[in-house]
TrEMBL record:
InterPro entries: ABATE (IPR010852), ABATE_dom_sf (IPR023286), Znf_CGNR (IPR021005). This is Zinc finger CGNR domain-containing protein. PANTHER family: BLL6575 PROTEIN. It comes from Catenulispora acidiphila (strain DSM 44928 / JCM 14897 / NBRC 102108 / NRRL B-24433 / ID139908). SUPFAM superfamilies: Jann2411-like. The lineage of its organism: Bacteria, Bacillati, Actinomycetota, Actinomycetes, Catenulisporales. Gene3D superfamilies: Jann2411-like domain. Residues 135-177 form the Zinc finger CGNR domain. It holds the Pfam family ABATE.
Length: 181
């Protein structure tokens, strides 16, 4: 499974593990192994935790609550009590354990529950931080990825230039060539 980390925040990348929500709804966390792999690639933990079907269901529940939180932060409706309760319940657990080895390398270890706790906590902090004003949604018609716009002018339109931005620029180029020919 290919994961992309272009959002600028781990929670926004996690929300994007469902791609094209409004059209094809492409699920990127199809198996417990996908979840464990994502947690490592996102640097939530260093080694894949043991994950089962119950962990996958919990991870998807958290992801949907975080998606609702991001929608709310970007001008959507207020959070329901059920979503607030879900986020609070996941955030109540301890996150991954940090340790440092003799070479100064920091290691993160933990279970799926601990990894999901970190994601929930980061989501709640995103809601508290001023950076939530920088959350944008990709302008590509089928992309539903949120991202942090840290550009100087705050006019970034695409989740990433290697993904939607390149496609949009190529389509615009083809359209100009077709109209000019």
């Amino acid at each position: 499974m290919r994961f992309e980390f272009v959002a600028g925040h781990v929670v926004l990348d996690y929300v994007a593990t469902v791609a094209e929500r409004t059209t094809t709804r492409l699920e990127r966390l199809s198996t417990p192994e996908d979840l464990a792999d994502w947690l490592v690639k996102a640097r939530v933990v260093d080694t894949p935790p043991t994950a089962g079907e119950a962990d996958l269901l919990a991870a998807r529940q958290l992801r949907e609550s975080l998606y609702t939180l991001v929608v709310s932060l970007t001008g959507g409706s207020a959070l329901t009590p059920a979503v607030r309760e879900t986020l609070t319940r996941f955030a109540a657990h301890d996150g991954p354990r940090l340790s440092i080895d003799a070479h100064g390398n920091v290691h993160r270890t933990g279970t799926v529950t601990q990894a999901l706790a970190l994601l929930a906590q980061e989501g709640l902090l995103l809601a508290r931080d001023e950076q939530h004003d920088s959350i944008r949604w990709c302008a590509a018609p089928t992309c539903t990825r949120p991202f942090l716009d840290r550009s100087h002018a705050r006019r970034r339109r695409w989740c990433g230039m290697s993904t939607c931005g390149d496609k949009a620029k190529a389509a615009a180029y083809r359209a100009r060539r077709a109209n000019g020919a």
